[in-house]
């Protein structure tokens, strides 16, 4: 028993250490990410399970020799690390409230049931129905499909707000059935009609096929507004990772004929955007991505082009280089421990967009958060879902003209720098970075 306790504690401590300092090694990057992500977002469950298992081993005599005592000490270190992750997850709600309060006000929005944290993979919400596999286009003989989440009482005569969700997966994997489900179910439970779309994936697809498909889905949504009971003049977009990249570009390239072949006249404007942990730079100008990101992945798999030969193509695919004054309101959310989409690029994107945008550009940087932190119902995910709903609801109320006058205008805020200093912000709301 003493040696079993020691082995278990070493194993648990390694996971806790990896969660705090995930590897950026090319070989270990994937496994390290998955291990740290699940450890961080399921920290309360890990902590409870470890305490129970160690308690059982102690009960059966694991402290009868020195390996058991060493194992108990290591377990205590792991518990402290996990407890810190729990506290950081709870702090997320404060960070997000501070990031959006200037436009949403202090009035709280609808809450996600706590059962979604206790049962984090139970996505379905009462009062929500799903229409699966609606065809919105065809490309290369393949049907392109989306799922629709809407209130059970929704009628075609309604004019409800709509949101398009774009899944992530590094532009090569992913599916509409896997991502965005906590947010879409929460929005649908509160009156929204939500669309979760698939798009062509690399290496079969070549950039900008992915963006073209997302715009085609948006055009389909507007064309079928009466069928689904939505307001065609109010559609928003959200997505994470590669989906966050596409979300940002959807917001920044509205009605660009380059990305609308065959449907150039379709209205692809958006009224708000919420990118989660997006990839904002295809040139890796700040070196945040792994050094092989361009040469071994992006060039041969996604872009089918060389950055050295066609740099402009990579810049046009980078949201950082596409910012402009007419961008819609944006709430960007990112984790400071993200090993797949560097947070320094998110900061630069927000900084550049704020310098030119006429609309609010809100940013929440979440301490202790990895990539993919809102995929299932963790404490952090629930806070993100509720904040996104408040932001999108504010945008909708402003569209309807029902927002209080003091919230309808863009309110100046403070820009919290990553180093903890505070400097005056432009009139595009606050940069919510945890200190």
Question: Main traits of this protein?
Answer:
435 residues; alpha/beta; Rossmann fold; nine-stranded mixed sheet; two-stranded antiparallel ribbon; 14 helices; 43% helix; 16% strand; disordered C terminus
Account of the 3D structure:
The chain has a 9-stranded mixed beta sheet, with helices on both faces. A two-stranded antiparallel sheet has the order 9-10. The chain has 14 helices and 11 strands. The protein has helices at 2-20, 29-41, 43-59, 66-104, 115-118, 181-189, 209-223, 225-228, 242-252, 293-303, 311-316, 343-356, 379-400, 405-408; strands at 128-139, 142-151, 160-166, 193-197, 230-240, 273-276, 330-335, 361-366, 414-416, 422-424, 431-433. The radius of gyration is 22 Å and the shape is globular. The protein has 2 domains: 2-90; 92-433, Alpha/Beta hydrolase fold, catalytic domain (Rossmann fold, 3-Layer(aba) Sandwich). With 435 residues, the chain is α/β, with parallel strands linked by helices. 43% of the residues lie in helices and 16% in strands.
């Amino acid at each position: 028993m003493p040696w079993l306790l020691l082995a278990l504690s070493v194993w648990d401590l390694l996971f806790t250490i990896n969660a705090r300092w995930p590897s950026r090694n090319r070989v270990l990057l994937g496994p390290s990410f998955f291990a740290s992500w699940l450890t961080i977002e399921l920290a309360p469950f890990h902590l409870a399970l470890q305490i129970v298992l160690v308690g059982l081993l102690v009960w059966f005599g694991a402290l009868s020799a020195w390996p058991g005592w060493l194992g108990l000490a290591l377990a205590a270190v792991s518990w402290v690390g996990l407890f810190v992750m729990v506290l950081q997850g709870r702090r997320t709600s404060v960070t997000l409230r501070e990031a959006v309060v200037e436009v949403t006000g202090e009035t709280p929005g609808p809450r996600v049931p706590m059962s979604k944290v206790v049962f984090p993979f139970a996505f379905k919400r009462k009062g929500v129905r799903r229409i699966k596999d609606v065809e919105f286009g065809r490309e290369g003989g393949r049907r392109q499909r989306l799922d629709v989440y809407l209130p059970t009482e929704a009628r075609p005569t309604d004019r409800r707000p709509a949101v398009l969700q774009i899944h992530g997966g590094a532009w090569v994997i992913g599916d509409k059935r896997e991502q965005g489900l906590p947010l879409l179910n929460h929005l649908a439970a509160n009156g929204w009609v939500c669309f979760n779309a698939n798009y062509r994936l690399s290496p079969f697809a070549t950039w900008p096929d992915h963006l073209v498909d997302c715009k085609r889905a948006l055009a389909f949504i507007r064309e079928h507004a009466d069928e689904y009971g939505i307001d065609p003049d109010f559609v928003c977009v959200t997505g994470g990772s590669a989906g966050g990249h596409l979300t940002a570009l959807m917001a920044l390239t509205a009605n660009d004929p380059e990305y609308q072949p065959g449907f150039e006249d379709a209205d692809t404007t958006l009224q708000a955007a919420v990118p989660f942990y997006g990839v904002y730079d295809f040139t890796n100008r700040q070196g945040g991505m792994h050094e092989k990101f361009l040469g071994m992945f992006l060039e041969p798999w996604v872009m089918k082009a060389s950055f050295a030969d066609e740099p402009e193509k990579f810049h046009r695919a980078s949201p950082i280089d596409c910012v402009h004054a007419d961008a819609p309101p944006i709430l960007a959310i990112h984790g400071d421990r993200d090993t797949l989409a560097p947070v320094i690029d998110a900061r630069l994107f927000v900084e550049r967009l704020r310098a030119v945008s006429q609309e609010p550009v809100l940013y929440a940087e979440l301490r202790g958060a990895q990539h993919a932190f809102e995929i299932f119902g963790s404490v952090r995910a629930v806070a993100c879902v509720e904040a996104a709903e408040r932001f999108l609801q504010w945008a909708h109320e402003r569209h309807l003209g029902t927002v209080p006058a003091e919230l309808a205008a863009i309110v100046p805020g403070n820009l919290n720098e990553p180093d903890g200093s505070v400097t005056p912000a432009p009139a595009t709301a606050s940069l919510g970075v945890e200190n």
